[in-house]
Amino acid sequence: MNLAVPNKFKNKIDREKTLRVLGAIILTLGLLEPLFYPTVANAAVTGYLRIDRMKAGQATAGTVCMTPNATHTTSNNTVTVSFSNGDASTTGFTLGATGSSWTATTTNLPTGSTAWPGITAATPTVSGQTVTYTMASSQTLTAATQYCFNFPGTSTLTSRSTAASNLTGTIVATDTTPANNETVSYATATISNDQIVVSATVPSTFSFSLSAFTAALGSLPTTGAPNTATAITATVSTNAQNGWLAWAKNANANSALTSASTSDGICFGGNYPTCTGAAYQATSANVHSFSSAAGYGLSVAAGSGTPTVAAEYAGSATTFGSLDSTKFEQLASKNAPASSNTFTLTFGAEASPTNKAATDYTDTVTISAAGQF
Fold it and tell me: E strands, 239-352, where?
């Protein structure tokens, strides 16, 4: 039996096969085409206008920025900025009519931006709600570069008295070919108050410490240099605007070390209890030398922070100031806030040849300090 397919049917089958193959090839190429020729999206021109003060009724400076979507080679001639007129009475903006007051600057621009080329030499003119900057010569703008400039806030732009939203305008960079102009719309607003008052409190601080609470003078000589106790360090810290002060007051009259067991005392002049010349004096005359002379007192020295030592106690290893038992007397001070200011307290004494032997010669000295706020 002859089962051969007639030629007309065979040709039809071949054509259908060919069409199916061609269709598959076309579909495959369509899927692969983006891999070899990726689509390039057209970037939109972007921009904004920032007013420095959004408070209604406030004169304000501002910043204009635009990022073109195409490169313009030596063709940018003007920049035109329009401002919302609002209702022309209480909302929107009032423009200063003097063009020269709108002269642009390019200092302190937004981070990442570029100074708009030629803008600082441009001539600004005002017409209605529009300011136009005409370049001295054509300028080049590069696609995807953000260009910015500032306009000043003196006699230029003032928002009207009523706060309003949706205050719209445009920024236009012209091209010698008008169809290539770059235009971006913007919107801003005014509000009742645009400033936040930030407040804080720093609490008053003051600290004071003494490195020791006893001052042992040992066995006192009756001639030569006086004995001194180990210096005691006073430390002051405070944030008082006017600094700090420190004072001392002792227990025994006439700056004396007294012995209860013998009813005797050691004081300047050696004639206890009258103690000629031992009483506190409010000058540097209060400081006495105890070299081969009887007496008892306090010497103060400045440490860290260089506080000022009162003249009445600015002594040395052999000179000491008389203490006052009637009231607190100033020892040292600093007229500014302090962080660990220090001064040292050194007690010294020398006995007279006639002071009675005893181990209980003593005095109690109270130290006080305060911040001066």
Answer: 244-250, 257-259, 264-266, 287-289, 295-302, 308-309, 319-321, 329-334, 338-350
Count of CB atoms situated within 10 Å of the CB of 342: 19
Contact 123, 99 (CB under 8 A): yes
Distance, in Å, from the CA atom of 59 to the CA atom of 16, rounded to the nearest integer, reads 79
Residue 338: count of CB within 10 angstroms of its CB: 22
Instruction: Give the three-class secondary structure for 297.
Output: strand
**How much of the chain, in percent, has pLDDT values that exceed 90?**
84
pTM of the complete model: 0.70
Rounded distance between C-alpha atoms, residue 189 and residue 163, angstroms: 7
Burial 203-242 (b: 16+ CB within 10 A, else e): eeebebeeeeeebebeebeeeeebbbbebbbbbbbbebee
Phi first, then psi: give them for residue 22, nearest 5 degrees. Answer: -60, -40
Q: From residue 187, how far is each of 83, 166, 257, 331 by CA, in Å?
A: 9, 6, 86, 68
Beta strand 72-82 with 206-210: parallel, antiparallel or unpaired?
unpaired
Q: Closest Cα to residue 334, out of 369, 361, 366?
A: 369
**Residue 280, both tokens:** 């506190």
**C-alpha atoms less than 13 angstroms from C-alpha of 3 in its C-beta half-sphere:** 0
Tell me the C-alpha distance between 229 and 332, whole Å: 19
Instruction: Name the residue among 254, 282, 286 with its Cα closest to residue 270.
Output: 254
3-state class (DSSP) for residue 266? strand
pLDDT tens profile 250-282: 999 999 999 999 999 999 999 999 998 999 999
Among 278, 321, 308, 279, which Cα is nearest to 372's?
Answer: 308
SS3 for 207-254, per residue? Answer: EEEECCCCCCCCCCCCCCCCEECCCEEEEEEECCCCCEEEEEEECCCC
